[in-house]
């Protein structure tokens, strides 16, 4: 981000300047009580990263002198300083809590992946005994490949020489096992 010219700083500095805060880390304790306490009046705070522990919602609820539910998924908390914090989706995943639905194309990708996973689990019991499993990347890539043409994407197939150079099968999967989509 810094190399692209964006300002990169820590929360202690960002909280003095920002009006809208969106956490995306997948970690916990990103925006804490000490951050809420010094935010600008009517700062908007939401999370798209990990449950409701990226934001210390418990602190906000405990330390607010008043709380008004503006509408579903939008709450305004008044702090002792007189400043307000607007919290979206109760600190949970805002893309789920405040969304009115996903485009059908997104849902098609998701449901196709689920169907292929169910078929794999049902037809290959030896590879998937009862338990929790990480499904192969090949399934994700199959879903992506089947949908790309619908949005005008044309991909060049790897040649045998290219695939060997990259250490991949020309048919995929195209990412190593440690890579997470």
Automatic annotation (TrEMBL):
GO terms for biological process: one-carbon metabolic process; S-adenosylmethionine cycle. SUPFAM superfamilies: Formate/glycerate dehydrogenase catalytic domain-like (SSF52283), NAD(P)-binding Rossmann-fold domains (SSF51735). Its cofactor is NAD(+). Residues 1-101 form the S-adenosyl-L-homocysteine hydrolase NAD binding domain. GO terms for cellular component: cytosol. GO terms for molecular function: adenosylhomocysteinase activity. Gene3D superfamilies: Adenosylhomocysteinase-like, NAD(P)-binding Rossmann-like Domain. InterPro entries: Adenosylhomocyst_ase-like_sf (IPR042172), Adenosylhomocysteinase-like (IPR000043), Ado_hCys_hydrolase_NAD-bd (IPR015878), NAD(P)-bd_dom_sf (IPR036291). Keywords: Hydrolase, NAD, One-carbon metabolism. PANTHER family: ADENOSYLHOMOCYSTEINASE. Belongs to the adenosylhomocysteinase family. This is S-adenosyl-L-homocysteine hydrolase. It comes from Modicella reniformis.
């Amino acid at each position: 981000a810094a190399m692209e010219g964006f300002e990169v700083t820590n929360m202690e500095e960002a909280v003095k300047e920002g009006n809208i805060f969106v956490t995306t880390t997948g970690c916990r304790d990103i925006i804490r009580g000490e951050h809420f306490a010094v935010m600008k009046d009517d700062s908007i705070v939401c999370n798209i990263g990990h449950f409701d522990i990226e934001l210390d919602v418990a602190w906000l609820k405990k330390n607010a002198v008043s709380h008004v539910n503006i509408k579903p998924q939008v709450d305004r908390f008044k702090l002792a300083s007189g400043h307000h914090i607007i919290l979206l989706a109760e600190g949970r995943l805002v893309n789920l809590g405040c969304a009115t639905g996903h485009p059908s194309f997104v849902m098609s990708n998701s449901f196709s992946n689920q169907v292929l996973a169910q078929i794999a689990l049902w037809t290959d019991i030896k590879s998937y005994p009862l338990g929790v499993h990480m499904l192969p990347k090949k399934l994700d890539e199959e879903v992506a490949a089947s949908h790309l043409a619908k949005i005008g994407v044309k991909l060049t197939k790897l040649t045998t020489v290219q695939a060997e150079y990259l250490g991949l099968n020309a048919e995929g999967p195209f990412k190593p096992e440690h890579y997470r989509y």
